[in-house]
């Protein structure tokens, strides 16, 4: 094709990790927390709560700000002010706090890979979790030594990735984002960063050649290079 230039895929240097659903698994805990929150403040029936539950699990890369807004505006068909969302976000954090701070939620195979490879690659976390909560949680879990930066929401993940490239001078083709949701994939695409799916059958069907089944004996360089060639 005239004018078409094939993407040059550079050697992998930077690995960006989604947090919840990849490094740490608290999706169920947070799902129950949202249910408690909405039952306190609305008269939502089981149909509405089930619709939100489906949305929550399908959108791991979406912040709690946006999830609360989605529940009110898309499911309940009600308007909600930004100040009210902020108050509900704070209350949600209080609901889940007691059970969130536990090493039991860490993904053992991912943690083993991170410990074994944090000197080979530069690791970052880009998460939809609340930034202040994420910082405290990662310190509690002893994860800080393995990551150059740990960023949560706000802003949205696509903006976190854009800021990362700008602040550190990274080329997208020397990076990869590992995530468990379609919104993670979309955030990577928006920044022209190769994406690898994990822990989600929907992504496995969508991206069969860019999917991590297990981290044991994983050739991350080869899989990322193939993803780069296929996706751009």
From TrEMBL:
GO cellular component: a single term: cytosol
Enzyme class: hydrolase
Pathways per UniProt: Organic acid metabolism; glycolate biosynthesis; glycolate from 2-phosphoglycolate: step 1/1
EC number, UniProt record: 3.1.3.18
Catalytic activity as recorded in UniProt: 2-phosphoglycolate + H2O = glycolate + phosphate
One GO-annotated biological process of the protein: DNA repair
Similarity comment text for this entry: Belongs to the HAD-like hydrolase superfamily. CbbY/CbbZ/Gph/YieH family.
Name of the protein in question: phosphoglycolate phosphatase
Species: Helicobacter ailurogastricus
